[in-house]
Each structure stands twice: as C-alpha cells, then as structure tokens.
Predict the structure of Zinc-type alcohol dehydrogenase-like protein.
Amino acid sequence: MTNTVSMKAVALKEYLPIEHQDSLIDVELDRPSPQGRDLLVRIKAVSLNPVDVKIRAPKARKEEQPRVIGWDAAGIVEAVGEDVTLFRPGDEVYYAGSIKRSGSNAQFQLVDERIVGRKPKNLDWAEAAALPLTTITAWEAIYDRLGVSKNPDHNAGKSILIIGAAGGVGSMATQLANLAGLTVVGTASRKESADWALKHGAHHVITHYEDFVPQIKKLGLNAPEYILCLNSTDKHWDNMVEALAPQGIICSIVETEHPIELTMLKDKSGTFVWEFMFTRSMFETKDMIAQHELLDNIAELVEKGQVYTTLTDRLSPFNAANMREAHRRIESGSMIGKLVVEGFDE
C-alpha cells in the first residue's frame, strides 16, 4: 500500500457570492503524478483573470469533490511524465493551463508541456504569473486571428483600435501592436486607465462612451484596418462596424448575449473572428505547441526590455481569504493591470 502525498489548495464546492465565507475554501488534496507529456509544477504565484470570476460565479450546482480553478501560474517543474521532451525538473516555467483540467490554485498542478513556456529570467514569480493568459490571448488575437505581420515595415500607415486597452489583455495587446509597427488607438473610460494605456504602447486614447469615427478623424487618422474588442461586443458592435476600414478585420474575445448582425460588414467586405485562448488546449489541436513557442518568444522580449509585465498588485500568503479578496477586486470592474496571489509556502 502506497502513502499518498497531500497538498494545499484553494477550492470550491458550491458556487456562491464571493462575500460568502464558503465561496472559496482552504482544502488538502492528493498531489497528482505526471504521465505522458504532463509536467508537475510547484506553484509559486497565480494571477487572477475575469475567467476565474466567471467560472466561480453563483449558480445552482454543487461539486461532489472540491474543484480547483485558476488559469495563470508561474512555478518550478517538480517532475515530468515519460513523454516530456521540452522541460526537466528544476526548470522555471509560466503558463495559463487548460480550462478542462484542475486549475492552478494549488501547491502543485499538472499541465501539458506544449502550453508551457520558460519563465523570463528577469522577472520574479508574481511578475511572471501576471503574463501568460493575457499574453497568449493578445498574441493569438493580433497575429493568428487578425493576421497582423510581425514585420513593422509591412504595417507602415496601418492602425489598430483596441477597445478596453487598459485591462490585462489590452495592456499586452498595446505592447505587441506597437512592436508590430501599428498605430495604436486605445479606448479607456478614466484618466487612470488612459494613462496606463499610453504607458503600455497606445499612441492615442479615446473614450468608448462616444462614437469612434469622429474621435479617430479628430486625431487625423484614417479608419483602422484592425479592431480588437476586449469589452462588450454587443455594446460596441455598431460603433466598430462604422469605424472599420473597408476590407478590415474585427476580432473579439467577449461573447455576445444577443446575435450580432454580420451582414452589416458586407458592404465593407469586412471580417469578424473570435479569439479564445483555451481553444488549442481544449481540443488538443495539432498546433497546440504554438502556445509554448509564443510564451518562449515573449520571455525573450521581456528579457530584452521590449515587453513588460502588467502586474499592479500582490496578495500574500496564498490562502482562501486572500483569494476571495482577489476575486472581489476583479468583480469590482475597476482593476488596471494584473493582480497576483503568491506565497503558498508562507
């Protein structure tokens, strides 16, 4: 008979309002063992995202076993499965994980090596944990969905409108679009968020509470060839279609509550495309390893000082009380940048 090794975790059994003491609870679970291409990672820091809040949101359901969520982490490879080729124990890594598997709010987590990158050497654990999910989303949206060239010379005179430029994904998208040589127009609703967007790569900031076209014309710019929607596709649809350049592309990461009228894009021969960063891991696509490659690319850009972490706040130690506070802050809708919880060993 073998003795199982336990680990600490923050989990849920009921889907309750975050103010409820039992919305997230401290638990002890069996430590998993890696098989195949899985890494067993000792978690050092976890970043919060809107998806955490969405998954945990109140609903009439109970879990028989504690459910661990969380989709952003940095840590150390503890052990590897028999088919692993990209990493070895002791490697420092960062990743966003898979929505189909147990999450990162635990001392140890299993994750497929094909969606893991090496941690940037010049960042601490929290700074690194703030990057993966938003970085993958921004990278895939700009390069894979919008089809933007990585060569700045190819993008001379072209622009991108990023709706919600001060959020986690927006902060990364402005940096990547700037590196690609695009003129970046971000939207923001407050002075603090406008300043943040400008700091992270936006050339101009407009408000998303007014029509885009007059504001863009006032800046002396042509209609944007690319639009990236990170806030309420429903609310901004008409405004985006009107602002888009002929033969332009709109990409959104925000699901709609109502059907959108795609025929509005017909006269402009416009394109609409979704970005969901869990697609590759959820369906184990043939190009799943692209997320490993892009995270390694970002690590190099961070080490060269061309891309920066968007960490703005930390909570420690890692326990249910601090995780509930982190969820509360995300739910407030006023976060700028990223919030990280760290310190399982404290």
